Structure prediction request, 505 residues.
Amino acid sequence: MAEKPELSMAAYRQRTRRSLLTGGLAALAGFAGWRWVQDQPQSHNIPTVLRKGHEFNEAVWSGLFREDHQARTFSRSAASILRVNGRQGLRSEIDLADWQFTVKGPDGTTLGTHVLNDIKQLDYFETTIEHKCIEGWAQITNWGGARFRDFMRLYEDQLPDNISHVYLETPDSQYYVSVDIETMRHDQTMLTYNNLGVPIDELHGAPLRLTTPLKYGIKQLKRIGEIQFLTEAGRDYWGERGYDWYAGL
Amino acid sequence: MSLDTNSDPQSPPQPIEPTKIAVLKHRRGSRWMHWINFPLIVIMIWSGLRIYWANRVYAFGILSWEWFMFFPESFYTALDLNQRLARGIAFHFTFAWLFTLNGIAFVIYTWRTGEWREMVPNRKSLRGSLDVLLHDLRIRKTEPPKRGRYNEAQRLTYSLVIFLGFLAILSGFAIFKPTQLSILTWILGGYTSARVIHFAVTIAFVLFFLVHILQVARAGWRNFTSMVTGYEVTETDTSGSNRTSPARQSMEAADG
Prediction:
């Protein structure tokens, strides 16, 4: 319905009344919509509709995910020792000499245990990337370790075909993440034990941590205690506290 | 940047009593998208500030001399921005889609209806905008002419703010998916630079908003209601010789 280019003053007055009424109702509807979002039942600490927003974004971006898209790399001279942020899961004592981690299948059965030397047996890989924190800061740093992909190969025969996520937790179970398998199989996703060529220290997750420039730091679990292969998304420390489960970059 | 369209200094004095008619100034689509954009951009800025709070590092200054830090702590307290990162992200990344869709819809609409002709600046717009600025600051007395519906300063500003909208969207996506959209992030100078651009664009939006409100208030109620009703009352003579009001020209350009 096209609008007339001109109106008589009588028609204009009627039009003004009608438009102001429509405008008022639209403003009320907008306000009601806003209240509706605020009053939603919570889904892991955010309104359900916003959780659905995160899930929509996950569907879009995991659909667009290309394994050959690499995070930008930098020259090693640009790298510095990473800022420490977040001590969840690191507060208990650890005896590095005695440390080992377990690997579990989707049903929870233990498939194996490993010490650091097992990971050091795998091909060494080093990369200098820009680490990004969900808080907004970024820092160029250098990681050294084994590709997770190579590690996973040790278990390929024992795992079903429909593995969709990998769950990792700290030895004290206080911190835990769930990461999609596409990210875990990516070139730049590593079981890391070196930062700038020297062993990572305790606050960076010694002796072994996950690193990947495809996710924010919240997913890059420090001090691995357990790795479980899953057929659906698992628990996630920050996801349960209102953040996006996917957290992909 | 005066918004009223009442006077036309070019028209010769008419002996006949002028009559008033209402002329279509803003089409239905423009009006709806303009008003839908308003709450969306407020939500984007507010949720964006909740995200910025978690890494509030930007300041105005030269080298080590800091003139103004974004923002004073009282600002965060007053607007409930402290410790709201998760919620800020949830709102920002959901409503970003609505903001983007509305922006794309507006550009398509403006293009299809031909309304963009009323908004694009040309080579003379910068000079013309200066004239408008001097007039609005009451430094110069003569009112600069309009070219169609808007004066040069309006053309320049409205076009710029739409460009800024798309820069906000692009820099936002560059920060959101810097690996999957690495080319976009690279074009904007990298992750850190895209983040600075995104923040600066937001500040520019707020400055535009303040000036916009001020100018709309100056232009008066009739001008304001034209953004709601679509029509603005204008005086014309009964002989019909003054029948080329700006909106009418644009209607002809668009429909014919």
Summary: DSSP finds five helices and 13 strands in chain A. The radius of gyration of chain A is 25 Å.
